[in-house]
Amino acid sequence: xxxxxxxSNDTLVSIICRSLGRPFLSQALSSLADQTHSNLExxxxxxxxxxxxxxxxxxxxxxxxxxxxxxxxxxSEAANTGMAAATGDYFLFLDDDDWIGSEHIATLLSxxxxxxxxxxxxxxxxxxxxxxxxxxxxxxxxxxxxLLLRDNYIPIHSVLFERSLYDQGCRFDTxxxxxxxxxxxxxxxxxxxxxxxxxxxxxxxxxxxxxxRQEDISVRYQQDHVLGKARAKLFDKWLEKxxxxxxxxxxxxxxxxxxxxxxxxxxxxxxxxxxxEHQTNLEHQQQISELLNESATLRDRTxxxxxxxxxxxxxxxxxxxxxxSLQDDLGHLHEIQRQITNSISWKITAPFxxxxxxxxxxxxxxxxxxxxxxx
Length: 375
What we know:
The protein is α/β, with parallel strands linked by helices and 375 residues long. It has 2 domains: 4-246, Spore Coat Polysaccharide Biosynthesis Protein SpsA, Chain A, CATH 3.90.550; 256-316. The protein is built from 13 helices and 9 strands. The protein starts with a helix and ends in a 16-residue tail after the last helix.
């Protein structure tokens, strides 16, 4: 967190902004206007002659000084032009397609004041899509002077450094069109260590001009690739300046035997875990297969039962229909019997039926004579 001395805004910080006049510049300037440390001067280096008036007018609270050259400026020359015009005690670069968090400058100022033996401090930088959407990739590397000899791991706008480094002769080498910032940090490292602050304070927009943020890092070693050529050019310059101690540190940073061994152990551990998970998956597949077979068997049994049930339902329906028909026939017979029994001829022939039964030897009861009422 910023200290009270920083919060007083008594220190002038110069921001060197190399600009092509792209729309992104608006966000870069807005991030400066939002700084908790507000004592800033912005050296807006117009590198291609585009009109920047609208951007400047949109940020009236910023102390902006536009620097326009008579011809288009390469990146290194634009950086030197900005530093030459700066009057602050500390410098920070911010290209027009990047931006910084509101506490970035105050946090780095506090770090430098709390560590008077160092003249440069930097924070983590988060990468974004071209539209500004944050990505998971974060440039987070503690300062390692030996590692800096072989790779640039410090994005330019993540660093706040003392003006004294400029006064001691640190300049951007105009011979470099790529890695000019790496060369500048190597110059600064001859005079000071860097203090790393493990917080995200800067944001690097992907899809810009820089040719140094390749996804496939292997191309940096290819002699026919632009990055391979640029690295070789930088090493040609610095090999003449590095001492035997510097080269020994460089070689030491490249000795990755312990790391390789550790990575191999990690790979073996992951292989064991994957094999165990594969075995578990096979067991689960077997269980699933068995359950599917059981399900198929149950489905067949269910289909058979449903077929039998339908057959029984049809049979029951037929029986019910037959029974209904028999009931109708029985009712019809009862009606015929009733009609016969109640008929006059049936009553008249009753004695004859009695005589016939008597002759057949059966015990008979004399028939009842019909009453006059039935005549």
